[in-house]
Write a structure and sequence with these properties.
InterPro entries: Adenosylhomocyst_ase-like_sf, Adenosylhomocysteinase-like, Ado_hCys_hydrolase_NAD-bd, NAD(P)-bd_dom_sf, S-Ado-L-homoCys_hydrolase_CS. By secondary structure, the chain is α/β, with parallel strands linked by helices. The chain folds into two domains: 222 residues, Adenosylhomocysteinase-like (Rossmann fold); 155 residues, Rossmann fold (3-Layer(aba) Sandwich), CATH 3.40.50. Helices cover 46% and strands 16% of the residues. It is built from 17 helices and 15 strands. The longest helix has 24 residues. The protein is globular, with a radius of gyration of 22 Å.
Length: 418
Amino acid sequence: MSDIADVSLAYAGVKRIEWADRTMPVLRQIRDRFAAERPLEGLRVAACMHVTTETANLIRTLQAGGAQVALAASNPLSTQDDTAAALAAEYGAQVFARAGIDREGYYRHIHQALEIGPDLVLDDGCDLVNILHLERTDLLAGVKGGCEETTTGVIRLHQMAREKALRFPMVAVNDTDTKHMFDNRYGTGQSTLDGIIRSTNTLLAGKTVVVAGFGYCGRGLSERARGLGARVVVTEIDPVKALDAALQGFAVMPMSEAAKAGDVFITVTGNREVITGAHLAAMKDGAILANSGHFDVEIDVRALEDLAVAVHRGVRPQADEYVLADGRRLVLLAEGRLVNLAAAEGHPAAVMDMSFADQALACAWLAAAHATLEPAVHEVPKEIDTEVARLKLASMSIAIDALTPDQEEYLRSWRLGS
């Protein structure tokens, strides 16, 4: 049994899912392989992920491998109701997701997905894993392992592991080279700016764009904002990343200084209160606030509400205007939630092709290897990352060189010098 908004949307959802599938050739090849090999035969998978067309194609791949899947949404603003309907009505998944559902409904849906009694779990932000460990401990013994998709979730998992709280192995899919490169850098870079432009129709050329955080996502954002003609300011807490940003030609300063200069602010750190009330109070009239971190805690929205004497909801799609006592206006996008999914469509399917290929192959690896793994955070095996990159290159008709036997021998030997 599913909980979706409108089953009549299923036909439209199928069309969108199939459109996305056209630009997901790697996942399509893995789906064909899974259908032949059935590496997930008889396994139950509970997933908490963005309910989008790209995720739907991952679910189809897991099903082709023999899995039974129950899916809950990892963000109520990113749920595509037509996709949810198609997955439930046409593709045979259990789906618990409705666009815009409240906090109580969000957590109810995760609990409903867990009723499948999972052997494997897929998470995007660690909420499902968190609930398993805090509220549904009766299910823990049956969980063989799982995968985590995003930076925020990996941070939480590492803390659980440090505290010896994690009860089963989790694979940090987020940390693969292919996901860092495609998903975090190119995907977040493009889709975040897409969401900002859709919701505000602002011209970025000539604007000062402040990017909080210079990890892979922050780098992608900074590069693409500069490409659109913006002056980019980076804020960081990590000296190495700050130095990297400076050497790439970006201005680097504390948020207390950047707050006075910025026209557009984008948080992408995985931490809370990156933009505080003091920062908000210093911002110029018309400043735009967007978050592309997983949870809606990076911008202190409560402080913004306290500063405001009036709030104009929906001045643009996914844009609310907060009026301060002196007449200055600050525009918050997507309620401080993931702007690229709430105000746009998230990453292009070609980007998620890589991430979900990693995800699918990691699930198959876990199904085979879980008994040998400790309850800890594990890296995706290098051969999986390499295989995904190889398949992607092949789909792009790109060939690369291979080592000759002499070159392999040279790399293995310490005796050969100059």
